[in-house]
Amino acid sequence: MPSVLLTAFEPYDHWQENSSWLALVELTRWLEDTQHITTRRYPVSLPGVRKRLAEDLRGNYDLVLHLGQAPGATHILLEAVGLNVHANGQPLIDDAPTAYRSALPLTQWREQLCEAGIPAQVSQHAGTYLCNATLFLSQHLIAQRQMASQVAFVHLPLTPAQAAREPSMRASMSTPLVAAAIAAMLQTQAVA
Questions:
Q1: Are 21 and 41 in contact (CB under 8 A)?
Q2: What angle do CA 166, 169, 172 make, to 5 degrees?
Q3: In the prediction, which pLDDT does 66 show?
């Protein structure tokens, strides 16, 4: 099995839980072999994420899979591109590439998940907030350090319990279903 860094985020804003962390915890309960998987819970802060990525990516993992919560999402979103842009419109890193594209088989993952009855789609970028920054900064650090690690960011819908507390009744997906999707992606990479 390849070595994996699997990250998720802590709660933020008015959310008492983060669907990404709940899915990561659920997934680790299922896995028989966790010796090759390192899990991290990241703060919802750009300086905090920068620091943690700089430290964690020293592990030279085969696969880096970041998970994030996407309120309103109806599908699991496989983010294809990390953009060098901060929420304020400024570059995350001066004199860095405009973007990095994930080399992971996102289309294959989407097809595999949809065939298993798990709604998924490839998204062209992760927005311009912390999720995008996490993806871009990971890709840039890996490129700078000339590592062979492959990285992706996966946005997850809210859990049903989170959606039920929202007055707008947002879309949701069960934590076990999301954990099954992540397990399928990891399995695909294990046999690749």
A1: yes
A2: 95
A3: 98
Q: What is the pLDDT of residue 192?
A: 63
Nearest-angstrom CA–CA distance, 52 and 49: 5
Q: List all residues 6 or more positions away from 91 whose beta carbon is below 8 Å from its beta carbon.
A: 84, 85
pLDDT in tens, 113-141: 999 999 999 999 888 899 999 999 999 99
pLDDT tens-digit profile of 33-58? 777 899 999 999 999 999 999 999 99
CATH number (domain holding residue 138)? 3.40.630.20
**Domain limits at 102?**
4-191
CB 45 within 8 A of CB 35: no
Q: How many CB atoms lie within 10 A of CB 154?
A: 27
CA 114 to chain centre: 18
Give the residue numbers annotated as catalytic, written as ranges. Answer: 79, 131, 155
How many independent structural domains does the chain possess? 1
